[in-house]
Amino acid sequence: MRLSLNQRTTRRWSVAEAVDGCVRHGLEAVGLWREEVAEQGLAESVKLVREAGLRVSSLCRGGFLTAGGLPGDAGRRAFARALEDNRRAIDEAAELSAACLVMVVGGLPGVRPGEPLPAASAREPAAGGFSRDLAGARERVAEALAELAPYAGERGVKLALEPLHPIYCPDRAVLSTLGQALDLSLPYPEEQVGVVVDTFHVWWDPRLFEDIARAGRRIASYQVCDYLHPLPADVLLGRGMMGDGVIDFRPITRAVQAAGYTGDIEVEIFNAEIWAADPDEVVATVKARYEDVVLATG
Amino acid sequence: MRLSLNQRTTRRWSVAEAVDGCVRHGLEAVGLWREEVAEQGLAESVKLVREAGLRVSSLCRGGFLTAGGLPGDAGRRAFARALEDNRRAIDEAAELSAACLVMVVGGLPGVRPGEPLPAASAREPAAGGFSRDLAGARERVAEALAELAPYAGERGVKLALEPLHPIYCPDRAVLSTLGQALDLSLPYPEEQVGVVVDTFHVWWDPRLFEDIARAGRRIASYQVCDYLHPLPADVLLGRGMMGDGVIDFRPITRAVQAAGYTGDIEVEIFNAEIWAADPDEVVATVKARYEDVVLATG
């Protein structure tokens, strides 16, 4: 059984409750989030997962590295702050012995996740606006990675670059395809920098199977959830229970396994209805759907 | 002046009104839609654009070729109907001397544009459900193209394959990147099959500039509008006036020109506010923004 519960799937659960829930449902791995770990306390979180004998399949998340694309001092300060925060995230991932630190690299400089664009009158970065320089933002990510990869390597932490669906390009991740994330990882040892294959983000990609094969053991995390259609008004919550959307999981699971991935399969669902449901029922459904539509057997 | 007005930007206008509007504002080209052409009458539409001396930069749209992915007789009938409808579209494009027929190829078989997925209990295609076979749907597009390209070629019509933003992959187009559209076009003469570069759909693509260069004279249409953020609840209407969203147009325009494209630049905006505004004011704004943010000069 390689199923892992990402704790944001059962959002009401604290780290302690998620750990208990995994044990109760017979899961051997859990994906944690920094915010919840901080609420529980890092040392306490480490103790909880160790005593429960769980693997930490991922820590979410580092990243948001693109603010350095703002001009002048503001950009330099934002870049330094982002690096410092990511070093802390790496330290936390090391403490938790997480299989990887998931990196959501950030969107266009000055565009805040989930928020409207700055007003038309203030679109110049210098005036508190944002930058449309997508190519530049992507270069900032590469520069930040050059700073962070050795730091992660020294602490035995693998950075897992997560390409996000292009709908999140403006505000969350200028990494938009698996191939792009993979290319960014190649200058580094595979134990330092890998990639995330998250079905929601990559299911549509015509190069998906070719890039999964090319990624090979660079695949640091395999996350599953379905892609709902139509998406809800808040597109962040368009992630569905496997089987409720448009994704054909088995061929993707098969390709990830064929590429050499032997880690956990983590279920990460952001969804208002699922968050409102009884977490124990959610985990039971996750287990059933995992068997029915995700596993590549049969 | 190579600016063309796609008539759906001024949605209230009939073909006659759009033609008058173009003349009144000094535009030399117009992009037409089959539905509006049918309302005006094909022969009358041909007469109107000829007498006004306008170029028809595109006819929208052919496509929706993937329903053949439904199983059995239903699939065969749907495929035959789609081919027949596309042959009529090609005939209309020939009558109008349109520079190309824009092809929106269709989504997953059984998923209707803008509509929710069939209920969970009826997800098998045979029961009026839908298919999750994305790779198969893409093969259906290639098969349909093999039928339609020669027919188009005999009538002097260029089919323009339009990759749509991945958000439309479930219901509107399984063509998701310019590279994918380009690869599909390569078996055919470039006067028979080309590709559309629509900024809204491709701005995020990390391979965009490489694929524009590779497309070269395969680029059959260059369409511009901005990508709004956040998208509205109806994502079809997330197209904005150039300058109102996140796209940096000039590098894209420059690349399209460097690739050898010498056709019209068509402005196609689906947007509830713009549709509610005075069409003459909309055209005036289009002209101003075209100069300010789209043209690659300066």
Relevant terms:
298 residues; homodimer; 10 strands; alpha/beta; eight-stranded parallel barrel; globular
Description:
2 copies of one chain form a homodimer. With 298 residues, chain A is α/β, with parallel strands linked by helices. Helices cover 42% and strands 15% of the residues of chain A. Chain A is built from 11 helices and 10 strands. Chain A has helices at residues 15-24, 34-40, 42-52, 72-95, 134-154, 178-185, 199-202, 208-215, 249-258, 272-276, 279-294; strands at residues 3-6, 29-33, 55-63, 101-104, 159-161, 193-198, 219-224, 226-227, 239-240, 265-267. In chain A, the strands form 2 sheets. The first copy, chain A, has an 8-stranded parallel barrel with strand order 1-2-3-4-5-6-7-10, surrounded by 6 helices. In chain A, strands 8-9 form a two-stranded antiparallel sheet. In chain A, strand 1, helix 1 (15-24) and strand 2 form a beta-alpha-beta unit. In chain A, helix 1 (15-24) runs parallel beside helix 3 (42-52), helix 2 (34-40) crosses helix 3 and helix 4 (72-95) runs parallel beside helix 5 (134-154). The longest helix of chain A has 24 residues, at 72-95. Chain A is globular and about 50 Å long. Chain A starts with a strand and ends with a helix. The interface between A and B is large, with 40 and 40 residues.
Give the helix/strand layout.
2 copies of one chain form a homodimer.
Chain A: E1 3-6, H1 15-24, E2 29-33, H2 34-40, H3 42-52, E3 55-63, H4 72-95, E4 101-104, H5 134-154, E5 159-161, H6 178-185, E6 193-198, H7 199-202, H8 208-215, E7 219-224, E8 226-227, E9 239-240, H9 249-258, E10 265-267, H10 272-276, H11 279-294
Parallel strand pairs in A: 1-2, 1-10, 2-3, 3-4, 4-5, 5-6, 6-7, 7-10
Antiparallel strand pairs in A: 8-9
Helix pairs in contact in A: 1-3, 2-3, 4-5
